[in-house]
Amino acid sequence: VAGDLSGTCLFLVGMMGCGKSTVAKDISEALSYEFQDSDKLVEKAVGATVAKIFSDSSEEKFRAAESEALNQLSETSNVVVATGGGAVVRDENWRYLKQGITIYLDVPVEALAQRVVAAGLEKRPLLVASGPDNSPGNAHEQALARLSKVYEERNKAYERADLKISVAKIASELGRDLNELPPS
Ligand code: S3P
C-alpha cells in the first residue's frame, strides 16, 4: 500500500469525535509519514484556539483559515492529515482535498455524542448551545441533537471521499463495543 501512496497526502475526514486524529496518527506511524492536524495549523496561523476564533471572530474567519491550511497541506506529500469535521463543506476545499486521497471515517451519531461529551464540549464550539436553543438538559441529549443535524447536513459531502470506513461494521466484526474504541 505504501508504494501506491508514496508522494501523496492522506486526508482523514468525518464528523467531530469520529477518531480522525487517532487514526491519522496510527496511519502516519505505520507508513512513516508525517502527521498534521488542520485545526492546529489554523490555530498557529491565526494565533488563537479554534474555540476563541469562533467566539471572538466568527465561524467564517475560521473557515477561511481552514481553507488556507488545506490548500497548503494539499501541496505536501507523505503526510497524513486529521481535518476538522467541517472541512468537507466548502466546495473550494475539495479542490485541495482531491489533490490527495480522502478517507471518511463513518461513526454513528449516538457513539459520536458519547465521545464528544466524554472529551468535553468546550473545544467544540459548534456543539455548545447558545441563544434561545440553550435549554438546560442532559449534555448527551443536546450533543446528540446537534450532531444529528450536522450529520444530516454534511452526509453527502462526506460521501465524496475516495474511501469510506464504516467504524461500526469494523467494531462489530471485531466483537468490540463501538464506545470502547479510542476517542478522537
Ligand atoms: C468542526 C470540527 C472541529 C473544528 C471546529 C469545527 C466542525 O474539529 O474544526 O470546531 O465544523 O465539525 P474536530 O472534527 O476535530 O472536532
From TrEMBL:
The record's GO molecular-function terms, alphabetically, read:
ATP binding; shikimate kinase activity
As its record notes, the protein acts as a catalyst of: shikimate + ATP = 3-phosphoshikimate + ADP + H(+)
Superkingdom of the source species: Eukaryota
Q: Name one GO cellular component term.
A: chloroplast
Q: Kindly state a single biological-process term from the GO annotations of this entry.
A: chorismate biosynthetic process
In which compartments does the protein localize? Answer: Plastid, Chloroplast
Instruction: Name the Enzyme Commission number(s) assigned to this protein.
Output: 2.7.1.71
The keyword Nucleus is assigned to this record? no
* Pathway stated in the Swiss-Prot or TrEMBL entry: Metabolic intermediate biosynthesis; chorismate biosynthesis; chorismate from D-erythrose 4-phosphate and phosphoenolpyruvate: step 5/7
User: Which key words tag this protein in UniProt?
Assistant: Amino-acid biosynthesis, Aromatic amino acid biosynthesis, ATP-binding, Kinase, Nucleotide-binding, Transferase
Function, please? Catalyzes the specific phosphorylation of the 3-hydroxyl group of shikimic acid using ATP as a cosubstrate.
What family does the entry list? Belongs to the shikimate kinase family.
According to UniProt, the name of this protein is shikimate kinase
Q: What is the lineage of its organism?
A: Eukaryota, Viridiplantae, Streptophyta, Embryophyta, Tracheophyta
Q: Which start and end residues of the full protein are shown? A: 39 to 222 of 237
